[in-house]
Amino acid sequence: MGNILKCFTGEDDHGDDDYYRPSSGARYGLQAGSDHGHGPSPYVDVDQPAAASRPHHDVVSLLQDLLYFESTSMVPEALRQHVTSSKKAQVKWYRNILEAYKNMRPQPKTPEEAAQLITTALSRIQRADLLVHHRCIGDGDGFSAYVDTADPRESANVALEVHEMVIDYQKVHHRTQARTHRDYQKARALLRSLDEAGYKIINISGEDILAKKYRIRMRGIDAPELEMTYGKESKDALVKLIGGKRVTIHVYGLDQFGRYVGDIYCDNVFVQERMLKSGHAWHFKTYDKRPEFAQWEREARAAHRGLWASDNPEKPWDWRREQRSSNIQVY
User: Fold this and answer.
1) How many CB atoms lie within 10 A of CB 50?
2) Among 21, 215, 217, 290, the one annotated catalytic
3) Is position 274 annotated as part of the catalytic site?
4) Where is the TNase-like domain (predicted)?
5) Which residues of 97-120 are buried (b: 16+ CB within 10 A; e: fewer)?
6) pTM higher than 0.70 for the full model?
7) Distance between CA 7 and CA 19 in Å, rounded?
8) Going along 173-327, which residue ranges are E strands?
């Protein structure tokens, strides 16, 4: 991934973004056609074209990474040192970029062309537009969103057993409504099974809609849990920002609880920035090193906004650790 980001700028140092920070140099010591006592690179043809038509060396490094991934199904080792996104997310990045590279004609030779390739590939997995209902906002840093499975992007992914559960539920539900055979227990069991599979039946304007559930964790902030002091105020602030509205999420990966971690935008507002500046959340420094996040938190502290009205507010990660030590499940 270091070689991927180098293609955007041609530089090695790209700041402090812990989720998507490149390595300090190319993963491979050999460039195309070079020889430092170890022979030519195993990833390129030794019969090189004329210099004017050769790809830029950063592009060659990118292609080496892609070829390495294609042959091993492993992301470059150096990537692990610089990102906190899950290995599954990293593999997905490379798979999409490799596919885009194979389909690109002509293939990239300059950093600018490679940057366009990467932007096109990552845009497939990094951005989603979702409608957020008020009741689906759990606290100040997370929410759930539902997407109608009639959407072509979702319909092809619905498993056969999910369709069968929906049909069974509709039969039971209709019989219950007609009072010909009441079986509330079976109906509830089918709804639980659908929920476990990540789906929900939602009634909109009298019509039942099968929707896919997406759980979202806002990247780089940590808000007080609902049971904590200021937890309700933090949730209410997020409801005011995004409740009943359509948000755009730029996804960076999945966390250990299966939630999509990303940056959230709504009405041209960067939601994490607003939550930090208003004192409704902490900067989650363990997982995010962006300096602007730290600055926004410092501004809220200095102004005693939100949770910083207290001299020593309890940290949510400390609270969760205490709960887990008491065998209470928290996320």
Assistant:
1) 6
2) 217
3) no
4) 137-310
5) bbebbeeeeeebbebebbbbbbee
6) no
7) 18
8) 199-204, 207-218, 221-222, 245-254, 260-266, 269-270, 282-283
User: Is the bond preceding 106 in cis, omega lying within 30 degrees of 0?
Assistant: yes
Per-residue CA distances from 98 to 27, 80, 82, 247, 269 (Å): 17, 19, 21, 29, 33
State the Cα angle at 234 between 233 and 236, rounded to 5°.
65
pLDDT digits (tens, 9 = 90+) for 255-269: 888 898 999 999 999
**Residue of 208, 204, 206, 201 whose CA lies nearest to 162:** 201
b or e along 263-280 (b: 16 or more beta carbons within 10 Å of the residue's beta carbon)? bbbbeeeebbbbbbbbbb
Q: Which residue has 């460039």 as its token pair?
A: 31
Residues in the chain: 331
Residue 156 and residue 150: Cα distance in Å, rounded? Answer: 9
Q: Cβ neighbours of residue 58 under 8 Å, at least 6 residues apart? A: 3, 6, 7, 10, 26, 111, 114
Q: Which residues of the chain have pLDDT under 50?
A: 1-52, 124-125, 178
CA-to-CA distance for 265 and 272, rounded, in angstroms? 8
Q: Two tokens at 269?
A: 């507002």
Instruction: Given the residues 21, 259, 274, 290, select the one marked as catalytic.
Output: 259
> Among all chains, which residue has been given the structure tokens 């194979």?
102
The DSSP 8-state label assigned to residue 226 in this structure reads T
215, 225, 274, 297: which is the annotated catalytic residue? 225
Q: Is 225 a catalytic residue?
A: yes
Rounded to whole angstroms, the Cα distance separating 162 from 107 reads 41
Condensed to tens digits (0 to 9), the pLDDT of residues 13-26 reads 333 333 333 332 33
- In angstroms, the CA 104 to CA 28 distance is 24
Q: Give tens-digit pLDDT for 180-221.
A: 556 778 888 988 999 888 898 887 777 888 989 899 999 999
